[in-house]
Amino acid sequence: MTWGAILGLALVSYLFKAVGPVLIGARPIPDGTRALLDLAAVPLLAALILVQTVSTDGSYSVDARLPALGVAALLIWRRAPFLVVILAAAATAATLRLV
Amino acid sequence: MPRTLDPTPASDTRRAIARDAAGVGVAVGLYAVSFGVLAVAAGASTAQAMAMSLLVFTGASQFAFIGVISGGGGAAAALAPALVLAARNAVYGLSVAPLLRGSLGGRLLRAQLVIDESTAMARAQDTPEDARFAFLATGVSVFVCWNAGTLIGALAGSGLGDPRDLGLDAMFPAAFLALLSPQLRRPGAPRVAVTGAAIACVLITLTPAGIPIVAAVLALLPAARVTWRDRGRPAAAVRA
């Protein structure tokens, strides 16, 4: 693994993160745009959940992650603490893979 | 994230945010241990694994990068999906920019904390002050735990066994669902979430890793069209 690639990844990743805070700064944002930006993380999070639950290396694969997500959803609905939710998900997947 | 709709004293709210931020940090730290293990297994030195967690500090990108390398891919092949995954932080950065007011130096420093977890925690709050607190608390908590976990994992090497056997891979979707659920109260959010997931689902086999997630922002187009049409009108509400 080369240092060049790691530092290149670090640099570009940082530029992505900094573009909003540096360019926008304290400038006021119109209400409509603000509401739209409030929504921006929603499709990305939904896509992350889907991709990390039902795919492996670019192909569909349904395994213990799906029932684990179901357990997590149930616990979130029951307002369980965050740590309980994710540890229950890990325990569910680990147990299902054991049997 | 259990957040009640009842009005609560400010200090209680802050305490609840701090507790959630610590919880997110611990969860991320556990996953970082597996990153450290996998990074060393893929041929990285402990210093390289730490450089990634300190400087890149974007979990999905780091996993994508070492995943391709361990699969035999070169640096260029590993960089493409990692950078595409990192691009979503630009959207997050725009989303939280109004919360990060301050000197240029301060903004440059806080920008490193722009990640999934800090953005989602900020967006889940009801007031800008709580959102700023949630962003910083979660960002710092995750940064510390992510790097501590990476170090432990890299030093422990492959002694922990397969992260899949421990169910660690199931923790990420569960964590993202917990972060997403409070945001679904926003007008139009459920439809945007379903559309984003559908776009990603269709693209999984058709595009390289990372693209399905970034392409999901196309789900915002209907809401963006309404915002553009209603521009200039006072108190224009976004409807998806």
TrEMBL record, chain A:
Keywords of this entry: Membrane, Transmembrane, Transmembrane helix
Entry's transmembrane regions: 6-24, 36-55, 75-96
InterPro entries according to UniProt: Brnchd-chn_aa_trnsp_AzlD
One Pfam family here: AzlD
Superkingdom field: Bacteria
Name this polypeptide is given: AzlD domain-containing protein
Species assigned in the record: Paraconexibacter sp. AEG42_29
UniProtKB/TrEMBL annotation, chain B:
Any GO BP annotation: L-valine transmembrane transport
Pfam families named in the record: AzlC
Keyword tags: Cell membrane, Membrane, Transmembrane, Transmembrane helix, Transport
Any single Gene Ontology cellular-component annotation: plasma membrane
Membrane-spanning residues: 21-44, 133-154, 196-221
Membrane topology listed for this record: Multi-pass membrane protein
Location relative to the cell: Cell membrane
Xref: PANTHER family: INNER MEMBRANE PROTEIN YGAZ
Protein family per UniProt: Belongs to the AzlC family.
Protein name: Branched-chain amino acid ABC transporter permease
Organism annotation: Paraconexibacter sp. AEG42_29
